[in-house]
Amino acid sequence: MRAEESGSRLREFGLLAGVLVLVAAGGVAWWTGAPIAANVVWATADVVTLVPAVVWVAADLGARRWGADLLAVLALVATVAVGEYLAGAIVAAMVATGRVLEAGARRRASRNLTALLDRAPRVAHLRTETGHETVPVDDVRAGQLIVVLPGEVVPVDGVLPDGGTFDESALTGEPLPVARPVDDTVHSGVVNAGAAVDVRASAAAADSAYAGVVRLAEQAAARTARVARVADRVAVWFLPASLLIAALAWALTGEAGRAAAVLVTATPCPLLLAVPIAITGGMSRASKAGVVVKDGAALEALGRVAVLLMDKTGTVTRGRPEITDVVCAPGHDAAEVLAFAAGVEQYSPHVLASAVVRAAASAGVAPASAEEVEEQLGSGVAGRVRDHEVRVGRLSAGTELPAWARGAARRGRLDLASVLWVEVGGEPVAALLAKDPIRPDAARTMRRLRAAGIGEIRLLTGDRVDNAREVAAMLGLDDVQAEVTPAEKVRAVEAASARGVTVMTGDGVNDAPALAAADVGVALGSRGATAAAQAADAVILDDRLDRLADAAEIARRSRRLAVQSAVAGTLLSLLAMLAAAGGFLVPVAGALVQEAIDVVVILNALRALGGAKLGGPAPAELVRRFESEHERLLPARVAVRQAADALTGGATPAADSAVRMAARLLTEQLLPHEQAEETELYPALAPALGGPEATVTMSRAHAEIGRLARRLQRHLAEAPDGIQPDQVDDLRATLYGLDAVLTLHFAQEEEAYFTLPSA
User: Would you give the distance in Å from CA 128 to the centre of its chain?
Assistant: First the structure.
C-alpha cells in the first residue's frame, strides 16, 4: 500500500514537473525569437497532460460516471484545435497542479486515520513461567495474562492485576499520563507510559475496543463522501451549460478562439477538488477530536442533522450507580459508616457494592477489616467488623424503622434513588442513596448541540419512566420515550427520520439496531459494546459525551465549507465563461483566471482541517485536584445535612454534638477548599472562560457559603454550654440553607468547570 502510494505520488509530481519544464522551455523559445518551436513545446505539454486525462475520463465513464473531468479534456483539445498552444499549456499545468493539490490534501487530511491503522498492535507477549512469549495478537484469548512492555500499545482490552500508568492521548486527547489502579480496566490502543505491566485479557483482539476503531478507520480510508460526488452532479448541468455558451460564442461571432476561451475558463477544479478536500479534512479533524467517522457520507449527514435521539444509561448518564448521599442515624458519622460498609462490600461483585467501595475511596476512608463475609443472594452482604455484625443491602425482615430511617427512605423515593441500608448489630445506622448520575458534561453538550443547529433532542431509553423524565427535565430535552424495547427504538428512529436527518447515540448491545437504522449512528466506544461500535457510523473513542458536540460542530463547518467552495467556484467560473464569450478574456487570460479561482476555493476548503477555539484550555492538574476534593468532601457535606436533621428533635445533646461536628468540618475542610478555589482555580480558569467576569456568580456563592458558616459559628459562640431551644429554628434554616447552596454550587462547578477541555 505504501509502495503504491509512493508510486502514485511520483507520477503526480513527475507530470507536474514535466509540464512546468515544457511551459518554461516554450517561454524561452518564444523569448529568443523561435515562436514555432515555442508552440511545438507548448503543444507537447498539452498532449502530455491530455493522455492521462483521457485515461481518467475513460475510467469514470467505465464506472458509468461522467461530468467534471470531461471538461478538462475538452479544454485541452479545444486549445490545440484552435492553435492556442500557450493557453493549452497553462491548462495542462493547471490540471497537473490540481492533481498534486488533491492528492496532497487527501494525504494530509487522512493522516490521522492512517495513524490509527499504523499503530495497531500486531503481536502480544503472553506471560509464561520463565518470562513471556511473543505471539500474534489474534492468538490472545480472554483470560490470558499478557505483558505490555514500556512504550508498547496495549493490544487487547483487559484488567490490571497490579495497576499501571498509560498514555491515552491517541484515543482520548488527554495529554497527561493516566494512572490506573489495581483491578481497573484498560482499553486496547493506549500506550504503556510506565514500567512493564501485566494485563489480564477480558476480550480477544478482534472483540477489543481498538479493533472496532481500526475497522472504522479502514472503512473511512476506503470510502469517499457521497457529497464529494456533488462535483459530478453539478457537472450534469455545468458541462452542457459550458458547451452551450462556447457554441453560442462561436456561432454569434464566428471566432473559434472565444469558444476555446470559454472551455478553458470552464475547467471545474473547484468541483473536482474543493468538496472532497473539505469533507476529508472534516474527517481528519473529527479524528483529532476523538471521533472516528466511518465515511464522508456520515460526516456530511451529521452536518445537517435535524433530530438527535439518545439512549440514557451510559450515554447521558455515567452508566453505573454512585453513592450520592449518606443519611446517618444520630450518633454516627459518614466516615464511620462508609468504612464499615466498604469493609464488607469490598468482597462482593455486585454493582452496588462497587459503588460503596468507590464512595469510601473518594471520601478518603479506608475500608474496615472484615471477617466472615457472606453474600446473601438478593438481599445484601454481611460480615463481622470489629466484633460487630455488619450488613449492607435490604433491610432485614421485620425491622422497625426509626424516625430518621423513615425520612431517609422517603428521601430515596423523592430522589428516585436506590437505598442501601447499613445495619450494625441488627440495627440500621445509615442509608446510602445510590443513583446513576447524569454525566457532568451532558448539560454543556446539549447546549452546544442546540447551538450547532440540532432542533430536536429526545431521550430514548428502556429505563423507568420516572427516572427518564427526571433526566430529560434536567437536561432540557424535547421529549422522552421510556421503557422501550430495541424494536421500539428502531421504530422511533424510523419515525424521526421522516422529520429530517436523524442521529442515534448509544453504547449498549440493545442500541445496535437503532444505531444501524438511523441516518447516522454514534456509539460511545470506550466501554460500549462491540456490536454497538460495529453498527455505528461514528465512534467516540473515549467516554466523554461532549465529543458528540465536537463532531457535530466539525461536520456542520466542513459541509458548509464544501458547499461554499463548490458554489463560489462554480459561480466564478460561470462569470469567467461569460466574460470569455464576450471577448473580454482570451484563452491564455482565461486559463490564468481559472487557476486563480482554483487556488481560492481550494484554500477555502482546506480551512476544514483547522478551526478556532474560544478561549484557552483549562489547567488539567488544577482542575483534577479540585474535582477529587469535591469527592473527598462528601462526609463534610453529609455532616451539614445530618446536623440540620438532628435538630428536628429539639436542642438535645445529640443535636448539639452533630451541629458542632458540622461546624468543625466546615472550618477545617469546606471553607479552605472554597478559599483555594477563589484564589487558585478561578484565576487559572479565566483564560478558558473568556475573562474573570465569567466566575463572578460562583464567587458570589462562595461569599454566601462563608456568610452562613459565620452565622453558624456565632450561634455556637452564644451557646458554649449547649444549644438553646430558641436557637433551633434559625440553626436549622442556616444548616439547610448551607446544604442547598453547597449542593447547587458543587453541581455548577462540576458541570461548568470540571468538563472544560484541558491543557
Answer: 39
Q: What is the mean pLDDT of the chain?
A: 80
Q: How far apart are CA 457 and CA 443, in angstroms?
A: 12
Say if residue 618's pLDDT is above 80: no
* Measured distance CA(73)–CA(57) in Å, rounded: 8
Q: Which residues make Cβ contacts (< 8 Å) with residue 356, sequence separation at least 6?
A: 323, 338, 341, 342, 345, 392, 420, 432
Cell reading at 497 = 427520520
CB hemisphere CA count around 52 (13 angstroms): 14
Tens digit of each residue's pLDDT (9 = 90 or more) over 559-578: 888 888 877 877 888 888 88
3-state secondary structure 255-293: CHHHHHHHHHHCCCHHHHHHHHHHHHHHHHHHHHCCEEE
Q: Cα(733)–Cα(711) distance, rounded to whole angstroms?
A: 11
- For the cut 90, the answer to whether the pLDDT of residue 431 exceeds it is yes
Looking at residue 615, its pLDDT comes to: 44
Which residues are designated catalytic?
A: 311
Alpha-carbon gap, residue 280 to 681, rounded angstroms: 39
pLDDT at 399: 73
Helix extents (H) in 63-110: 68-81, 85-109
Q: From residue 549, how far is each of 283, 284, 352, 447 by CA, in Å?
A: 14, 16, 31, 9
End-to-end CA distance of the chain: 36
Proportion of the chain above pLDDT 90, given as a percent: 15
- Count of alpha carbons within 13 angstroms of residue 285, beta-carbon side: 25
List CB contacts of 325: < 8 A, sequence separation 6 or more: 411, 415, 417, 432, 433, 638, 641
